[in-house]
Amino acid sequence: MGEFIDKTKAAANKAAGSVKDAVGEATGDDKLRTEGKGQKARGTAQNVSGSIKGALGDDI
């Protein structure tokens, strides 16, 4: 179940990060763009974590 949870959280973080990045771009808010890029990066890391858990088992 850890794989599913990590990948679900990853998708949510990537989506929210993309929105923040786009809004920051549209409004010229560099801080919001940076937050968005960071959140997308966290989502990518969570996705990798989920993939590892899927490959090795959720007990890691």
UniProtKB/TrEMBL annotation:
Domain CsbD-like: 6-55
Superkingdom assignment: Bacteria
Region (Disordered): 26-60
Biased composition (Basic and acidic residues): 28-38
Family stated for the protein in its record: Belongs to the UPF0337 (CsbD) family.
Descriptive protein name: CsbD-like domain-containing protein
Natural source organism: Limimaricola cinnabarinus LL-001
Classification lineage: Bacteria, Pseudomonadati, Pseudomonadota, Alphaproteobacteria, Rhodobacterales
